[in-house]
Amino acid sequence: MSSQILFTGAIHIEYGQFYVDPGVDAFAAGGAEFLDPLRSAFRGQSNGICGASRKGSLFLITGLSQGTVCVTIELAQAEPPRDEAWEEIVECAFAHEAPRLFLSEWELERRQPLALPRGIYRVRYGAKSMLDDSQAGEDGPVQEYLLQFWPAPPSRDEVVKVSGDCARYWHGEVAGYGA
Fold it and tell me: Out of the domains of life, which is the source (predicted)?
């Protein structure tokens, strides 16, 4: 099954997070999202590393607090097979209705446009080496993250695979965020 690569490369991480967003600074809008963007992104979810509760955006957690990680974003025509090489795997629903979509770093400092057509998707977020604090190995960043989108009707988020303490911590952290 073929997939289209929307982005692949290194991005800078601050506070262990990056985003997929429509290019609107939700944090500047005030209200609950400004006061607690983490809580609003994960409200009502069971997974704690891919927050999809805010319409049209994803709040993605990494194991690295600050530094560089490798990110790949793919669009598939149908559900891709799960690759068990990914140590952490979660899935959730994602509705993209905005005119644009971006891969964004902390405080929207750097944005990379994503050519994801408008639609309703399932997104799978995978992580490798989430507990490795190394900035980079000989071949680049040590931590790797994969986002795979494919058309699918909305459904609840799901923790598919947990291997390490970092993801386990975040899954437990969001459990109290309620609906």
Answer: Bacteria
